[in-house]
Amino acid sequence: MLGNGEVAENGRPILAEPQDSTHRGQYWSVKMLDLNRRVVENAYFVQHFDDGGNNASIDYLLQWPASLRNPGNAQLTILPVPGQEDAYVIASFNKKEKMFALRGDEMKIVPLNLKDSTAWVAFDEVNKPKIKSPWWEDETIFALNRLPAHATYQPYASEAEMLKDKTFYNTPWSVPVSERYLSLNGTWKFNLVSEPKLRPTTFFQEGFDVSKWDDIPVPSNWEMQGYDHPIYCNVEYPHANTPPYIMARPGYNDGGANYGINPVGSYVRTFNLPQGWSKQRTIIHFFWRI
């Protein structure tokens, strides 16, 4: 099966891979430009088969964004193999008498030869599957288990207590002085993983052992506490440009060697509610204070 290694970055070689029905990089759509020219487009990522153009160092089939109006290096010719049922050869349209054939696990650019069985491909017509993605890759989900947003306000036990707290009234980013307020700032237990599949999924349950977790001050930025790496990006993303899918960006991240692909921090703190709070509505508020 021809795929992109589930990597949607520009320039990724097209490889021969074991078939995987959940692998988005293995679903391609053949589109007709005219009677002779075709483009092969990924069904999930904005990527197309590309012959590398005039770059002499590229001797393999790769992926690159293209458009039907300006297909450029994505123009291909798909030729039937004489005497072979459902066997075809993918050839470059711009590089005359050149086709793509397997050399190892890569599709290399070689002289056109319809008898070369390492260049033969077959096409299966399938419907684009609905591959389930995790909820954090669903752009329609903005928040979970969160109350509706509203303007800043602070509850007080009485009007007198509110009027007495002049500092918070004048500077609402300061710490309020109220019987109805409990700060959770301080030392929390902390665990960091480089991607969501490695995270502990039951850490919030009572009895979960966090004794071997690190301590971290809250509020703080974990990169400034020695975890992962701070990243400054100007005009580029540190992840692959494949919304809504969150994927590593080869060359920028080197497969997670430089920083977490999609790091997840888990925090735990045990605290006691003040006396009487259990009988009234209590809201926990997570926010960064500068």
Description:
- The protein is mainly β.
- The chain contains two helices and 14 strands.
- It has helices at 159-164, 166-170, and strands at 2-3, 15-16, 28-32, 38-42, 48-50, 62-64, 76-80, 88-92, 98-103, 106-111, 120-121, 186-193, 214-218, 264-268.
Largest sheet: 3 strands, antiparallel
Task: Give the terminus-to-terminus CA distance.
Answer: 52 Å
Find the structural class using helix and strand composition.
mainly beta
Q: How large, in whole angstroms, is the Cα Rg? A: 28 Å
Q: How much strand?
A: 15-25%
- What is the strand tally? 14
Helix count equals 2
What is the mean predicted local confidence, pLDDT?
Answer: 90
DSSP helix fraction: under 10%
Morphology call:
elongated
What's the arrangement of secondary structure elements?
Elements: E1 2-3, E2 15-16, E3 28-32, E4 38-42, E5 48-50, E6 62-64, E7 76-80, E8 88-92, E9 98-103, E10 106-111, E11 120-121, H1 159-164, H2 166-170, E12 186-193, E13 214-218, E14 264-268
Antiparallel strand pairs: 1-2, 3-4, 5-6, 7-8, 8-11, 9-10, 12-13, 12-14
Features:
single chain, 290 residues, mainly beta, three-stranded antiparallel sheet, 14 strands
Concise description?
By secondary structure, this protein is mostly beta strands.
